[in-house]
Design goal:
13-stranded antiparallel beta sheet, AttH-like fold, 2 domains, 10-stranded antiparallel beta sheet, globular
């Protein structure tokens, strides 16, 4: 199908004027009630992603962290390719990123895929997305859980993640979160999922390795809408799973001038009660240490204080491994730090932090 589309576009390139086919960009993405699990499926939205991160331990006592992310984006007509609107060449594209960290050894591997080289698709009926045959996220046999399969850096993981709480709709009803100058996004999550599965590797041929059972916990995010990520400098995102079974999500949207354009979050109590957090409800501050990537030159903050006074949360968040940078310029054009973190202070716990575009827009706290 992709080859046929390209052939048609080449023919059209010789013809003028060119009629541009209808696009999902032609009208604002509609506001509608979120219905889960139906809305775990793909949407006809310009931008969409599904994101799993987690902390695992295998029966040998090895502690691992993982990330598996799928992106889907429709081709914008405003983007010209060889002088033609992009949606004449292709309807949409799919990208996936994956990483595994051996937390004791400090060893991390990552990989990225794009559908130029792999067959890919996302179901519009239920959770089901793949980029290549070995990177898959789909509804599990129980009709509730998420089944994940991926290989990276000699590891092969097969996981089933089961929600321990009801899904969270972040932001304003019906689950719409501000993205600053970029617009707004539907944003749903399972902030604590019990994980069971198995890991093989690392070894040169994962299929030949011993399979080791593992357990753990994961966090799942799903966002979709017609927001634009090129209208701000980047974001800092924190997903913390505290040892009292509560969770905290906080994010900052950074403007190109260094200011914070939007700041919000969510506190999820142990019993699943959800409380939206406004900018005045929490403190998020870098506390001094930094890490500079030897490959991209980006400098990232490497310790933070997170406080949510209404819930007695006052913790320090630190990376479990310094180098957890994702250089995905080959697929998304973006460099970001996606890291497993430890939580200490009023609460213990674990989590993940995401810091985007520090290679393009230096952090204001970095040394000149």
């Amino acid at each position: 199908m992709r080859r046929a589309t390209i052939a048609i576009a080449l023919v059209l390139a010789a013809c003028a004027p060119v009629a541009v086919p209808p696009s999902v960009f032609d009208a604002p993405y509609p506001v509608a009630a979120v219905e889960l699990p139906r809305d775990d499926a793909a949407h006809p939205a310009p931008v969409e992603w599904w994101y799993w991160v987690g902390h695992l331990e295998d029966e040998d006592g090895r502690s691992l962290a993982f990330q598996l992310t799928f992106f889907k984006a429709y081709a914008p007509p405003a983007l010209p390719i060889l002088g033609l609107p992009a949606n004449l060449w292709l309807e949409k594209g799919h990208v996936a990123h994956a990483a595994v960290v051996d937390l004791e050894a400090g060893r991390r591997v990552m990989a990225q895929r794009i559908d130029v080289f792999f067959d890919a698709d996302a179901s519009s009926d239920d959770l089901g997305i793949f980029v290549g045959p070995s990177w898959v996220a789909e509804r599990a046999e129980d009709g509730v859980s998420h089944a994940l399969r991926f290989t990276v850096g000699g590891y092969a993981l097969e996981l089933v993640a089961t929600p321990r709480k009801a899904a969270v709709l972040h932001g304003d009803s019906p689950g719409i979160q501000s993205m600053g100058a970029g617009g707004v996004s539907y944003y749903t999550a399972h902030t604590r999922m019990a994980v069971e599965g198995a890991v093989r590797g690392p070894c040169l041929v994962p299929a030949a390795c011993r399979t080791v059972p593992l357990t753990g916990q994961a966090w799942f995010d799903h966002q979709w809408g017609d927001f634009r990520v090129d209208r701000f400098a980047g974001w800092d995102w924190f997903a913390l799973q505290l040892d009292d079974d509560a969770e905290v999500m906080i994010y900052l949207i950074r403007g190109l001038d260094g200011t914070i354009e939007s700041a919000a979050g969510t506190h999820v109590a142990a019993d699943g009660w959800v409380r939206p957090l406004g900018e005045g409800d929490f403190v998020l501050e870098a506390t001094g240490p930094t890490w500079t990537s030897p490959s991209t030159g980006a400098t990232y903050p490497a310790e933070w204080r997170v406080a949510v006074p209404a819930f007695g949360v006052d913790v320090f968040v630190t990376p479990m491994v310094a180098d957890q940078e994702m250089n995905t310029r080959a697929t998304t054009g973006i460099v970001y730090w996606e890291g497993a973190v430890a939580v200490r202070g009023s609460h213990g716990g674990v989590g993940f932090v995401e810091l985007t575009n520090y290679d393009r827009v230096p952090w204001a706290g970095a040394e000149p």
